[in-house]
Amino acid sequence: MAAPNGDDVGEGTDPHVHVQADLGGAAVSRQITAATFGLAADAPARVSTGCGLTVAYARTSTRPGSVTCLACREYAHRRHLDAAAWAEQWRRQPTTDADLAAHAARAAAHHRDLARQFADPRR
Ligand SMILES: [Zn+2]
Predict the structure, then answer these.
(1) Residue 42 counted as domain residue
(2) 24 or 72: which carries more pLDDT confidence?
(3) pTM for the whole thing?
(4) 5 alpha carbon to ligand 1 midpoint, in Å?
(5) pLDDT of residue 54
(6) Which of 42, 107, 113, 119 holds its CA 20 to 30 A away from the CA of 80?
(7) Is the pLDDT confidence value at 43 over 90?
(8) 54-56 vs 46-48, strand pairing mode
């Protein structure tokens, strides 16, 4: 629930750690930009989450074991399964060469593993 100023009502009492709606993709982009061009962009102060809130960047994590918001865990689980399915589609394309197919297979396995961890943080 967002207040007119854009802040989420009740965040001060929200004890949970969330996932970013892009699952940290923007942070990865910032890291690549910094590594490639030597430019260090600041992390945004506030970010959208998988459960539909806007929270402080510091209240989010990409590590499955750190995310305590159940809705965000379910969101990340689904998004990683979608990403794994997308990578599998790439792997099976007749025009995909062996190197790209191997890369796609690793990406699919990586996303399946993350999906599993978001579904069950003890694994
Ligand atoms: Zn959340």
Answers:
(1) yes
(2) 72
(3) 0.77
(4) 20
(5) 95
(6) 42
(7) no
(8) antiparallel
114 SS3 class? helix
Residue 59 lies in a domain: yes
- Residues with C-beta atoms within 5 A of ion ligand 1: 18, 49, 51, 69, 72
Count of domains forming the chain:
1
Find the largest Cα–Cα distance for the chain. Answer: 53
- Cα(52) to centroid(ligand 1), Å: 7
Taking a C-beta distance cutoff of 8 angstroms, is the pair 79, 51 a contact?
no
Q: How far is ligand 1, taken at its centre, from the CA of residue 77, in Å?
A: 13
What was the pLDDT predicted at 4? Answer: 46
Measured in Å, residue 66 CA sits from the centre of ligand 1 at 12
- pLDDT (0 to 100) of residue 72: 97
In a domain, 5, yes or no: no
- Ligand 1: centre distance to CA 21 (Å): 9
**For residues 90 and 105, is the Cβ–Cβ distance under 8 A?**
no
Supply the range of the domain harboring residue 99. 11-119
Tell me, what's the pLDDT at 11? Answer: 58
